[in-house]
Amino acid sequence: MVGVDLTDPDLWLAGVPHEEFRRLRREAPVAWCEHPGGHRGFWAVTRHRDLLTVSRDPATFSSRDGVITLDDLDPDQLEARRTMLEEDPPRHRKLRGLTSAHFTPAAVRAHEGMVRALTERLVGEILETGEVDLVAALAEKVPIRVLARIMGVPDQLVDELVDLGNRMIGSDDPEYGDAPMTSDARLLPFGNPAALEAFEIAWLLAEDRRREPTDDVITALARGTLEGRTLTPEELGTYFLLLVIAGNETTRHTITSGVMALAENPAEWERLRRGEVDTTRAADEILRWATAIHFHRRVATRDVGLGGVDVAAGDKVVLYFASANYDEEVFTDPHRLDLGRSPNDHVSFGRGGPHFCLGAHLARLEVRVTLETLAARVRRIEVVGPAVRLRSNHINGVKHLPVLLHPV
Q1: Orientation of helix 233-264 relative to helix 266-273, angle to 10°
Q2: Which range among 130-144, 188-202, 232-246, 305-319 shows the weakest confidence by mean pLDDT?
Q3: Using an 8 Å Cβ cutoff, are 3 and 21 in contact?
Q4: I need a labelling partner for 90 at 20 to 30 A (CA). Which of 73, 125, 133, 391 fits?
Q5: Where are the domains of the chain?
Q6: Alpha carbon distance 288, 321 (integer Å)
Q7: Of 378, 255, 283, 323, whose CA–CA distance to 27 is shortest?
Q8: What's the CATH superfamily of 9-407?
Q9: How many Cβ atoms sit within 10 Å of the Cβ of residue 303?
Q10: Global pTM?
Q11: pLDDT digits (tens, 9 = 90+) for 254-303
């Protein structure tokens, strides 16, 4: 019933297939998709209300059989790659609790001055330079540097973490995915040997914090306990990797897509510059518009009805945030950028269940401060070349965006 191959990374190079998602929401909101790669097919959930139904019921729709891939994974692969994302309650809650204190609203607010100073410095450098790649000059720098400060990662390692993230998230992209895949890689996160390099960083930093603890996330992981014991090296490494990838890649692509959207919608840009819209609402609209993650996956634990179809126990159920965030039942004129949109019940943070994004408050802060800084210092955003998109069926990413920011 699906008219395109949602598993094909090349499909997404042209952007989100909004026309197909619009048809599916209307005709088959829970639609069966074949997987041409030799894997089992899956149910594509495209409607907002059905996505919330799945998200709110982890007992029926489990995360333990994989979340970020449409492929089937063997049991040993699942265990080796398992992160907090691939856990259900109550273990998910216990893992989340190890670091959640660092991502509360109050904890995040304490970093606003640092985020603002960093963003203003970077925007100032862009204005002095002229034409730049917005990704390299701003979007990839803000989230990773803020996250490194919260986690306790030294500044000299930040660029290496960006490179590792590119190689893992971009494994289907020829610009990043040139690492040879070995038989051992199948047991690594993202199936990529770059994960081992990230693990080494995590383990070395954890050793330092065991000797000299500080108030950061690395210390929380190194000295925290789970079910009466410290984390194994593998658990610590995958947790570290999850935070680095999830806390950096998603916000980076949201900022890039947001700036591109504002360049294409000058009337909305002027509303923001003139202070006619609340910047918190504007940030949420950018988060909806960008939808940095196309999907997350679940597996049904029992036979269940969903969206008018019968889902069998063991079936893969794939939640398409990229569709739900444009659902006409929820959003008036969803394909219009409206920085003052209210209400805005977007699902970019996995709204409605235990897997609500741990870093949601931080992402909102970074996007809001970036918008405020640009609005104060930039008169016009000019995109001066084609956007180069990431080849991925999972991440809605832009790798390069040449821009010229005209100062006020």
Answers
A1: 100
A2: 188-202
A3: no
A4: 73
A5: 9-407
A6: 9
A7: 323
A8: Cytochrome P450 (1.10.630.10)
A9: 12
A10: 0.96
A11: 999 999 999 999 999 999 999 999 999 999 999 999 999 999 999 999 99
